[in-house]
């Protein structure tokens, strides 16, 4: 029970703090509303749960054994996050002319983001290293960790999405929309930096 309580606290803190997924949730909520952002959130949450589950089975060891795989993931992740940042920063007010794309991000976009998000990898490996050993059955440990991150991640990303939807109510001009979307795009670019440190 002590291990589970510590795991829940770790998951709450790591999923609610700003990063690529929270930034994208905020941008999606702002531009599309909470309901239309649910596929993105579901993709990010299920991707995080899968990543945490795999980390419980030694995924970090595989990446250490094959450095080229880690480098490929960093390069691919950086490229994907840059594309998401450009897409986010290029939007004005919803429905305005010149928007890059008017559809919300998809479930697959959420999955892809988590697979290349350095914060998600750090959370997964950190949880595995700190908490998997506290449970006797490794399969049960991986399942419990995945479930905890699924619940905490769902709550955190929905909260950030709601913040974005509330921000949208405050924006009155095209310039305000472009400024905030530009700032959110910049935050996505900044989220790449830890990947290379």
Please tag this protein with its features:
single chain; 197 residues; mainly alpha; 8 helices; 79% helix; globular
Structure description:
With 197 residues, this protein is mainly alpha-helical. Helices cover 79% and strands 0% of the residues. The chain has helices spanning 2-16, 20-55, 59-65, 67-89, 107-116, 118-131, 138-170, 174-190. The mean pLDDT is 83.
Tell me the quaternary state.
single chain
Cα shape: globular
| Alpha-beta content class | mainly alpha
Q: State which percent range the strand residues make up.
A: under 5%
Q: Mean of the pLDDT scores?
A: 83
Count of distinct strands: 0
In angstroms, what is the radius of gyration? 17 Å
Number of domains: 1
Number of helices, where a helix is a run of at least 4 consecutive DSSP H or I residues: 8
Query: Helix amount, in percent?
Result: over 70%
Please mark out the parts with pLDDT under 50 across 5 or more consecutive residues, or reply none. Answer: none
Major sheet details: none
Distance between the termini: 35 Å
Order of helices and strands: HHHHHHHH
């Amino acid at each position: 029970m002590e291990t589970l309580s510590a795991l829940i606290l770790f998951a709450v803190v790591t999923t609610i703090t700003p990063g690529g997924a929270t930034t994208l949730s905020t941008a999606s909520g702002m531009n599309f509303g909470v309901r239309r952002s649910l596929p993105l959130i579901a993709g990010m949450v299920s991707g995080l749960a899968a990543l945490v589950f795999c980390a419980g089975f030694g995924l970090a060891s595989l990446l250490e054994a094959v450095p080229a795989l880690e480098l490929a993931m960093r390069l691919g992740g950086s490229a994907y996050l840059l594309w998401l940042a450009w897409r986010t920063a290029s939007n004005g007010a919803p429905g305005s002319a010149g928007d890059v794309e008017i559809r919300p991000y998809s479930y697959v976009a959420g999955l892809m983001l988590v697979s290349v998000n350095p914060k998600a990898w750090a959370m997964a490996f950190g949880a595995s290293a700190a908490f998997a050993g506290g449970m006797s059955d490794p399969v049960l440990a991986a399942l419990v960790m995945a479930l905890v991150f699924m619940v905490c991640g769902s709550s955190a990303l929905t909260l950030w999405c709601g913040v974005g939807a509330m921000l949208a109510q405050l924006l009155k001009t095209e310039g305000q929309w472009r400024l905030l979307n530009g700032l959110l795009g910049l935050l996505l670019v900044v989220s790449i930096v830890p990947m290379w440190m």
